[in-house]
Amino acid sequence: MRTDPPSPNEMRAQLTELLQAHEALAERLRQGQAAFQRIARSVWRVQEEERSRFARELHDGVGHNLAAMLHLISEALASLPDDERNRHARDELARAHAIGDSTLQDTRALSRMLRPQILDDLGLEPALRWLARSFSETHGIDTQLDYHAPPAGIDADRSTLVFRLVQEALANTARHASARRVAIAFDGRGEQASLRVRDDGSGCDIDAALARGRQGASSGLGGMRDRVRLFGGSLQFQSTPGAGFGLSVHFPLSDASPGASP
């Protein structure tokens, strides 16, 4: 058994081996992380494609059938004389028409929530403006959008990411905030795009909300952060009880941008 200490050359050789082993392990970890992100983004993309397919089926299938049914009810109602003998039948047809019309509106709203056609047809900015306007009209909350488009455009995956983040942030405001105003700001003029959403509502305890999400009570916040990380980005929440809720997101506009994950 060797008892004398290793020579300086031997120590340098051992250190070199350790460094090389460390670098090899770090590279394998980077490759594993990149592979995981590719798989996770593929799963996320498939989920969005399924949402889009289901939204089209609701709109083009169920929606059109309901519209046709309403037309038939209207024709039947118009064909009945407006007299005492037909009053009950006319009342029932009118009630059926009202129920059918309400169901049609709910179906269209569900279709838009699953995947608004405007996002695919016209792009991110019109989709966000539609979302802000619809949210304001539905909830009576003043919702403003400040949008600066990326000079080279934004791809479909990142458009969907931004839309879903804003959608979830607004849903959080509607559920919990008791807000009067919401400000949305998107800026794509740099290599790192930024998104900020801020309301003036009651705020929340972010750590508690994230903990509830980890325990299975859906808050949506943890899922938002996970989606941003798939694109090499970061997300921070800003909120304290009584002081409003906000989020700040930064992510690269392409996988080759500085800061993007490999």
Automatic annotation (TrEMBL):
Nucleotide-binding among keywords: yes
Keyword NAD appears in the UniProt entry: no
Record Pfam families: HATPase_c (PF02518), HisKA_3 (PF07730)
Recorded coiled-coil stretches: none
Enzyme Commission no: 2.7.13.3
Domain Histidine kinase: 164-255
MF-aspect GO terms: ATP binding; phosphorelay sensor kinase activity; protein dimerization activity
PROSITE patterns: HIS_KIN
Keyword line: ATP-binding, Kinase, Nucleotide-binding, Phosphoprotein, Transferase, Two-component regulatory system
Catalytic activity: ATP + protein L-histidine = ADP + protein N-phospho-L-histidine
Gene Ontology, cellular component aspect: membrane
PANTHER family, per database record: NITRATE/NITRITE SENSOR PROTEIN NARX-RELATED, NITRATE_NITRITE SENSOR PROTEIN NARQ
This protein's name: histidine kinase
Organism of derivation: Dokdonella fugitiva
